[in-house]
Amino acid sequence: MNELDCTACQTLVHGYLDKELDTAMTAKVAAHLAECAECARLLDEARLLTVSVKRHAPYYTAPASLIASVFAPVAPRNSALKRWRKWFAPGFSAAALALAMVLYVATPGSEQPLMDEAVSSHVRSLMGEHLNDVVSSDRHTVKPWFTGKLDFSPPVFDYSAQGFPLLGGRLDYLQHQATAALAYGRAKHIINVFVLPTTEADEPPKTRSIRGFNVVSWQANHMRFVLVSDVEKAELETLGQLLRNGA
Amino acid sequence: MAIGDELPEDDAALSHGQSPELLAIHTENAALIQQALRALPPMFREVIVLKELEEMPYKDIALVADIPIGTVMSRLARARAMLKLELLKLHDHE
User: Which of A15, A148, A159, B90 could form a disulfide with A20 if both were Cys (CB 3.0 to 4.6 A apart)?
Assistant: First the structure.
């Protein structure tokens, strides 16, 4: 029955004192205590100690205000969290959306590579003797020339009257697509008009400056127009207006 | 808990035993008790306060002190042993 050794009992005695042992263990400890004076003395000491502490240790009751502040805010705090969720969660969503929009707008879109290519092509066309494959100011010569070379029909008009004579046309290749390149003159400047098919929706004209060249681009009738030249921005926009108006 | 009920009755009888150790432990000097309690490391002082002053059961002490319930008794045993040693030390100094 009492296989308890003193080492184990030295701990169990405290559980015994605090009445925290189950019935079986309580009986075991009681049996051991009846036989072991040493452990019995330990129990007495522990009991006296607890009495002393209970009697003399300072016990300060927390001020009512502190108790109130500790226990009362439990509910409001919860509602504060809810309020936080209610107002800040949509706020954060909106902020995240705004950030996404900013990134979407600020990130160079799919247009940028095309514009860069167009500018490079414009520069290349001026370097060698390859501005035009078909040299003519006659739109009835230039336009049919493209037939069979392109799977779309770019609008070709001569604007000599408005100061933009048609110089000719050539085939180019932008964005992995066969592209019509029309060359217009403006005083001594050359304007390249790139026309390539697109599946995207119409877009209003946009003017930008790339490496010192002015670029005007828009999309209409599933065709993308890119005008590149070193002429004044306003002049390039004028030609763009003419092209959009047709003849 | 028949055995437990008998415990308080021994109290008065024991205080007549008066070995030096018991004398030290059964002190009426509040300052001494406070000083001894202050000398304990916080984790041991904590279980003493929760048990003797807050009179919590072991399972609540385990919750408050965030220790396994099996640890409460052994920690309390150590804490009381340490407190006894502190009191003896202080008693010898007087």
Answer: A15
CA distance B76 to A219: 83
Closest CA to B76 of A20, A56, A61, A60: A20
Asked whether the beta carbons of A193 and A231 are under 8 A apart, the reply is no
On the CB side of A64, how many CA atoms lie within 13 Å of its CA?
0
Residue A168's CB is within 10 A of a number of other CB atoms, namely 20
Partner A contacted by B21 (CB < 8 A):
yes
The residue among A56, A60, A61, A70 with the most chain B CBs within 10 A of its CB, best to mutate, is A56
CB pairs under 8 A between A and B: 87
Both structure tokens of A13 = 């005695």
DSSP B19: -
The tens digit of pLDDT for each residue in A150-185 reads 888 888 888 988 899 998 889 888 888 889 999 999
| Tokens (6 digits) for A85 | 């969720």
Mutant choice from A45, A61, A70 vs B, greatest count of B C-beta within 10 A: A45
Please judge whether A19 and B14 are an interchain contact, meaning their C-beta atoms are less than 8 angstroms apart: no
